[in-house]
C-alpha cells in the first residue's frame, strides 16, 4: 500500500496485521526509536508534572489539563487509548479519567490546504472545490470559469476536528447541506507505528507487574477498530445498515450518505441541524434521554446492531425533535 502523503511502501493495508506491522517497524530501528523517544519524552513530562503538583491543593492542579493536551497531540492511537481509559477510573484514578473524558469532543485541526488536496485527490476532481476556495495548482481563472465547482459552498475552516479527521460544512448544487469529513494525513503508517509501540509497552507492563487489566489485548482491540475506521466507505455502509435495522423506530435517524462525494478518505453526509444533550432544556433532555434508552434497548435486545460509541458528541437532538446518531466508524453486531 502506498501512503497518500508519501511514497513509502507499506506491507499492510486497512486490515490490522500485527505480524506485518512488527516485521516492518523492527526493520526500521531509526524510525521506531525516534517515535519511542517522542512518546517516552511526553510521558516523562506528564509524570513529572503530576508528581510535582502533589504538593499543591486540588483546586490548584493543572496536571489534568496537561495530560489531556499532551494525549491530544500524540495522535489517534493515544487519543483512543485515552478515551478507553477514561472509562476506567479504577485503573488510572478519578482525576486522570475526568481529564481524559474531554478527548471525546475537540481535537486540534490540521492545515486546511492538506484537507482540500485530499478532497480533490480522493474524489478525482480537477476543478475548483467551491466558488470561495483557491484554485487548484495549475488551474487558471479562465479554466475555473468553465468548470463547475465540486460544491456550491464549503466552509473555509473546519467546524470540528476529531482524532481521525475533521469536518467541513458544505452545500451541494442540489441545495443539500452536508458535512464533509476529511481524514488526517498519513493515518495508516502513524496508527500502525503507535499501535506497535503501545502494544510493546503493554506487553512489558503485563510481564513486569503480572497485570490482568493493562494487557496487549487492549492495543490489539484498538488496532482492529482503528484500521476498520480508516476506510470511510465502510462507515457509510455502517450508517445505512444501522438505519435499515432500526427503521421501525420512528424517532431514530441517521444522516444520509452522499456517495457521489464519498471515497476512502472523504465522507460526505447530510448535515443535521440539532443540539447535544448539554444544550437542551430540561424537558428536551428528558425527551432525548427517553429516546436514547429505548433505542439502546432495541439495539441490545431486538436488532443486535449497535452503535459502538454512543457518547454525547455522537448524539444530537434534531430541530425536528428526533434522535440522530452520528459517527459510525464502528458498529457492533450481536447474535440474538
Low-confidence stretches: 1-7
Portion in helices: 40-55%
The H-and-E topology, N to C, reads as HHHHHHHHEEEEHHHEEEHEEEE
Mean pLDDT: 89
- The number of helices is 12
**Main sheet: strands, sense, barrel:** 5 strands, antiparallel
Tell how many strands the DSSP assignment holds: 11
Strand content: 5-15%
Derived from helix and strand composition plus strand pairing, the structural class reads: alpha+beta
* CA-based shape: globular
Spatial separation of the terminal alpha carbons: 38 Å
Rg calc: 22 Å
Provide structural commentary:
α2 packs antiparallel against α3 and α3 crosses α6. The radius of gyration is 22 Å and the shape is globular. With 336 residues, the chain is of the alpha+beta class.
Offer a quick outline of the entry:
By secondary structure, this protein is α+β, with helices and mostly antiparallel strands.
Amino acid at each position: 500500500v502506498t501512503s497518500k502523503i508519501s511514497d513509502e511502501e507499506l506491507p499492510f493495508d486497512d486490515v490490522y496485521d500485527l505480524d506485518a506491522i512488527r516485521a516492518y517497524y523492527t526493520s526500521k530501528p531509526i524510525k521506531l526509536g525516534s517515535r519511542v523517544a517522542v512518546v517516552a519524552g511526553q510521558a516523562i513530562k506528564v509524570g513529572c508534572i503530576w508528581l510535582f503538583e502533589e504538593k499543591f491543593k486540588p483546586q490548584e492542579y493543572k496536571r489534568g489539563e496537561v495530560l489531556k493536551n499532551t494525549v491530544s497531540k500524540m495522535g489517534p492511537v493515544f487519543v483512543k487509548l485515552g478515551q478507553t481509559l477514561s472509562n476506567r477510573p479504577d485503573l488510572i484514578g478519578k482525576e486522570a479519567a475526568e481529564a481524559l473524558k474531554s478527548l471525546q469532543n475537540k481535537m486540534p485541526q490540521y492545515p486546511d490546504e492538506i484537507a482540500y488536496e485530499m478532497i480533490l485527490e480522493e474524489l478525482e476532481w480537477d476543478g475548483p472545490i467551491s466558488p470561495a476556495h483557491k484554485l487548484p495548482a495549475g488551474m487558471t481563472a479562465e479554466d475555473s470559469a468553465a468548470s463547475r465547482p465540486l460544491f456550491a459552498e464549503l466552509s473555509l475552516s473546519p467546524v470540528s476536528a476529531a482524532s481521525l479527521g475533521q469536518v467541513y460544512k458544505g452545500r451541494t448544487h442540489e441545495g443539500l447541506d452536508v458535512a464533509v469529513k476529511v481524514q488526517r494525513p498519513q493515518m495508516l503508517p502513524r496508527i500502525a507505528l503507535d499501535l506497535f509501540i503501545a502494544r510493546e509497552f503493554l506487553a512489558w507492563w503485563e510481564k513486569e507487574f503480572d497485570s490482568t487489566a493493562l494487557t496487549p489485548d487492549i492495543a490489539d482491540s484498538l488496532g482492529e477498530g482503528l484500521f476498520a475506521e480508516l476506510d470511510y466507505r465502510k462507515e457509510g455502509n455502517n450508517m445505512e445498515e444501522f438505519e435499515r435495522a432500526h427503521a421501525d423506530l420512528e424517532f431514530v435517524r441517521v444522516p444520509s450518505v452522499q456517495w457521489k462525494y464519498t471515497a476512502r478518505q472523504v465522507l460526505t453526509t447530510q448535515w443535521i441541524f440539532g443540539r447535544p444533550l448539554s444544550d437542551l432544556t430540561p424537558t428536551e433532555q428528558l425527551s432525548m434521554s427517553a429516546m436514547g434508552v429505548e433505542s439502546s434497548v432495541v439495539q441490545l435486545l431486538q436488532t443486535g446492531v449497535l452503535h459502538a460509541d454512543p457518547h454525547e458528541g455522537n448524539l444530537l437532538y434534531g430541530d425536528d425533535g428526533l434522535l440522530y446518531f452520528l459517527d459510525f466508524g464502528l458498529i457492533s453486531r450481536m447474535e440474538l
